[in-house]
Amino acid sequence: MTVKLSKAEKKVKYDKKLCRMLDEYSKVLIALADNVGSNQLQNIRKGLRGDSIVLMGKNTLIRRCIKVHAEKSGNQAYLSLLPLLVGNVGLIFTKGDLKEVSEEVAKYKVGAPARVGLVAPIDVVVPPGNTGLDPSQTSFFQVLNIPTKINKGTVEIITPVELIKKGDKVGSSEAALLAKLGIRPFSYGLVVQSVYEDGSVFSPEVLDLTEDDLIEKFSAGLSMVTSLSLAISYPTLAAAPHMFINAYKNVLAVAIATDYTYPQAEKVKEYLKDPTKFAVSAAPAASVTPAASTAPAAAVEEKKEEPAEESDEDMGFSLFD
């Protein structure tokens, strides 16, 4: 036989549960839970079971529990969660990878019809095609300025129609039309709005950053620091190589313009006196093909054989003598 708890007892039990989670977990996802049903939330809890726990509750109660826990434990880090507890939100405490947990939460989305007065989270476009409705419904489409035609005894939409724009409220006519067509344009689930980890709060988009993205951002920041340092002549580790190179260029320019010289500048002066040294030499010997290398050798052999024939004729001998 279950014993019913009073409201005060339920609050005490909830407070103990939340304080225990604050002690055990250092990572929290703050998720918006608008239009999320109880069955859907139960499925999310099952999917996250193991390393993550979904905790829902009144924002005022959660704020009070966090403040009291911070005073008792001396851990002020969780106070950064207080500004995030606005609207219908829930806390997902986790020990797993934040990105994996966020992706798992995003899987549990359920299609929902367009209800009257609901703010559309996306644009709703009615596709062209046969609606399966009888011709008596034509006037209904005319009210919404949807071009139609009668095809084989049913109403057919001719062109795609943008019925509802993102951010607009759903009207009664739009909701009725979508219901007749069997279109459930919206999908709802827990939407991660903020991420808490060891006292730091950041946007969930940070979880999608890869190592290449971090390297690119670091390189961009390093380039900005280098440019600023060079512009104001303030030495930094990033700008030091460029400063040394620029200084060497200045010294080299002075050596070229005057009689002052040093070993590294002599070679440059030598090239400037004789520009032909800048010319690139002919193709290297390694690039010569085997056929080309054998041809001169054959020619040499032929040249060597010719004097032998001439010497026989000079001596006056013949093959039949």
Automatic annotation (TrEMBL):
Question: Which PANTHER family does this entry report, sorted A to Z?
Answer: 60S ACIDIC RIBOSOMAL PROTEIN P0, LARGE RIBOSOMAL SUBUNIT PROTEIN UL10
Bias class Low complexity marks the residues at 284-299
Q: What keywords are annotated for this sequence in UniProt?
A: Ribonucleoprotein, Ribosomal protein
Q: Where is this region: Disordered?
A: 284-321
One biological process GO term for this chain? cytoplasmic translation
Q: Which residues are in the Large ribosomal subunit protein uL10-like insertion domain?
A: 114-183
User: Does the UniProt entry include the keyword Cytoplasm?
Assistant: no
Physiological role = Ribosomal protein P0 is the functional equivalent of E.coli protein L10.
Q: What are the top taxonomic ranks of the organism?
A: Eukaryota, Viridiplantae, Streptophyta, Embryophyta, Tracheophyta
Q: Recorded GO terms, molecular function? A: large ribosomal subunit rRNA binding; structural constituent of ribosome
In which family does this protein belong, per the annotation?
Belongs to the universal ribosomal protein uL10 family.
UniProt xrefs under CDD domains: Ribosomal_P0_L10e
Name assigned to this protein? 60S acidic ribosomal protein P0
Cellular component terms (Gene Ontology): cytosolic large ribosomal subunit
Which species is listed as the source?
A: Dendrobium chrysotoxum
Report any Pfam family annotated for this entry: Ribosomal_60s
